């Protein structure tokens, strides 16, 4: 389930302060999305056990009068298009400005929920000034101070109320049980070409699945006697968007597709290599616990000698480190080279992600590894790990039971993770390790 909230508002009302507070308090993830002309921010907020994506569509706005208006309109349009709910932020200390009025006009036209949020209400005096904002005519008005955090809890309560509980029909359940792969990547890397190459094969049965979010297209496939669902956003981008927004749109779409997927197929353009943006998307997928396969497309365009692929993979892995146990496949969507291999690998990664290791086997292997290399002594305490078990979670997770759970440091955690990866196949899958008091 993917729910997205966008923050809109003119410059200096406190959007980024608010954004940072939302994420900082909830220990969420912040990713800077570098658009072509401005920086916008994306993160995951978490409130009362419900999570949602938060986007700050603001960022840099040139201060020439006419460009200004245009940029603000664009910002609002992106937010209305992409989000499920909007936070319209204003500033109590400045009162209602012409730009606030102009934005309110645009926002009143959407059917999506708009939460008018009057910021900088740091004290009771400000509260009096702030009441003038009722005049803008929004039903939901919140008075907050992003600086102190006051009022933000009420706003969050109202926001998470909108997140639907997962209810499923029988048909949904059957689809939900199938592996879901998202094809993600920047514009022009060849996502559409890959989809077309797959669809064009007679072994595939294609049917569009209705009822999924409007921003992603789900297609049901049957290949290698296996059923799976491909989630793509490729076709959607060719709407009438302005060029410099293409990249930002593609990032938001990628994140939505990612939320719905078990395994992400991150498509790159071989000639361009992996960009900083791709690395952001890659680490976000890893933190969200998604399986990952990297597809280096347009391999037909590369001049190749004996070690080209090997060297390429090595350089790529340096950039995605520390999570490098990830399959990298060199494909050409145009020449239909290794596109089946790509899908087979995605199915393998899915199998790795859903693998449950029997406890006895896990203990046999891991206790030996622990015996061979003990955790270092901390403050004179010798650390003993007695038992390990896999937890019944979506992302493969392992609990190690020990006398001093807080004294085990990252290097030893990494050692345990590497041992798990060496003995059991978790290629393409982030794994989580917990230490618990025995
Ligand atoms: P943005 O341009 O909308 O992203 O605004 P910023 O988050 O950069 O904030 C603009 C200015 O307002 C900064 O100087 C902030 O410190 C200040 N500010 C933000 N929130 C509050 C608040 O709740 N109270 C007060 N007094 N100042 C705030
Ligand atoms: P998308 O924006 O990621 O969906 O990318 P497209 O599928 O629209 O492809 C962008 C451009 O790259 C098009 O001109 C394609 O013909 C070209 N292209 C896609 N895949 C390949 C490939 O494997 N080899 C070559 N040489 N060109 C490709």
Describe the structure.
The chain has 438 residues and is of the alpha/beta class. It folds into three domains: 4-162, P-loop containing nucleotide triphosphate hydrolases (Rossmann fold, 3-Layer(aba) Sandwich), CATH 3.40.50.300; 170-354, Rossmann fold (3-Layer(aba) Sandwich), CATH 3.40.50.300; 359-437, GMP Synthetase, Chain A, domain 3 (2-Layer Sandwich). The protein has 13 helices and 17 strands. Helix 2 packs parallel to helix 3 (98-108) and helix 12 crosses helix 13. The longest helix has 18 residues, at 65-82. The chain is globular and about 70 Å long.
Task: Give a short overview.
Keywords: GTP-binding, Nucleotide-binding, Repeat, Ribosome biogenesis. The protein has helices spanning 15-25, 65-82, 98-108, 124-130, 152-161, 170-176, 191-199, 243-260, 276-287, 308-320, 339-354, 359-372, 410-423; strands at 4-8, 30-34, 39-47, 50-56, 85-91, 114-119, 140-143, 180-184, 207-208, 217-223, 226-232, 263-269, 291-297, 328-330, 385-391, 397-402, 432-437. With 438 residues, the chain is an alpha/beta fold.
User: β content, as a range?
Assistant: 15-25%
CATH homolog superfamily of the largest domain: P-loop containing nucleotide triphosphate hydrolases
**Terminal residue distance:** 35 Å
**Weakly predicted, low-confidence segments:** 25-38, 202-213, 237-241
- What's the domain count? 3
* Number of beta strands: 17
Q: What is the correct CATH architecture of the largest domain?
A: 3-Layer(aba) Sandwich
Q: How much helix, percentage-wise, in residues?
A: 25-40%
User: Mean of the pLDDT scores?
Assistant: 84
The structural class is: alpha/beta
Shape: globular
Radius of gyration: 24 Å
CATH topology of the largest domain: Rossmann fold
User: Which strands sit side by side, in order, in the main sheet?
Assistant: 2-3-4-1-5-6-7
């Amino acid at each position: 389930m993917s729910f997205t909230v966008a923050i809109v508002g003119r410059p200096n009302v406190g959007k980024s302060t608010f954004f940072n507070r939302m994420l900082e308090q909830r220990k969420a993830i912040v990713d800077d999305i570098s658009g072509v002309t401005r920086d916008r921010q994306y993160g995951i907020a978490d409130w009362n056990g419900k999570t949602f994506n938060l986007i700050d569509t603001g960022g840099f706005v040139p201060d020439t009068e006419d460009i200004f208006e245009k940029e603000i309109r664009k910002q609002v349009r992106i937010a209305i298009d992409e989000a499920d709910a909007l936070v319209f932020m204003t500033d109590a200390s400045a009162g209602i400005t012409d730009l606030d009025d102009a934005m309110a006009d645009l926002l009143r036209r959407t059917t999506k929920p708009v939460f008018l949020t009057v910021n900088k209400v740091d004290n009771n005096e400000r509260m009096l000034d702030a009441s003038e904002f009722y005049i803008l005519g929004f039903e939901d008005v919140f008075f907050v101070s992003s600086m102190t955090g006051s009022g933000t809890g009420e706003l969050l309560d109202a926001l998470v109320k909108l997140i639907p509980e997962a209810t499923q029909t029988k048909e949904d359940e059957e689809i939900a049980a199938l592996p879901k792969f998202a094809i993600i990547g920047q514009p022009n890397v060849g996502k559409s070409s890959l989809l077309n190459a797959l669809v064009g094969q007679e072994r595939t049965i294609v049917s569009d699945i209705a009822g999924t979010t409007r921003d992603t297209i789900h297609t049901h496939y049957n290949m290698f006697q296996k059923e799976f669902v491909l989630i793509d956003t490729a076709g959607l981008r060719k709407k009438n968007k302005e060029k410099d927004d293409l990249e930002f749109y593609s990032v938001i779409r990628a994140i939505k597709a990612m939320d719905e997927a078990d395994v992400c197929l991150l498509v790159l353009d071989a000639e361009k290599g992996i960009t900083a943006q791709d690395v952001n998307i890659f680490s976000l997928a890893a933190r969200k616990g998604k399986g990952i396969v990297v597809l280096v497309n347009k391999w037909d365009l590369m001049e190749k000698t004996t070690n080209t692929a090997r060297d390429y993979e090595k350089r790529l892995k340096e950039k995605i480190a520390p999570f490098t146990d990830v399959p990298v496949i060199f494909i050409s969507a145009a020449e239909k080279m290794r596109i089946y291999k790509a899908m087979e690998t995605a199915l393998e990664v899915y199998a790795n992600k859903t693998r449950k290791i029997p406890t006895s086997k896990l203990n046999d292997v891991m206790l030996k590894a622990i015996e061979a290399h003990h955790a270092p002594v901390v403050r004179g305490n010798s650390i003993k790990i007695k038992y390990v078990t896999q937890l019944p979670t979506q992302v493969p997770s392992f609990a190690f039971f020990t006398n001093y759970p807080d004294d085990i440091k990252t290097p030893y955690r990494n050692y345990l993770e590497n041992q798990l990866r060496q003995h059991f196949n978790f290629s393409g899958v982030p794994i989580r390790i917990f230490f618990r008091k025995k």
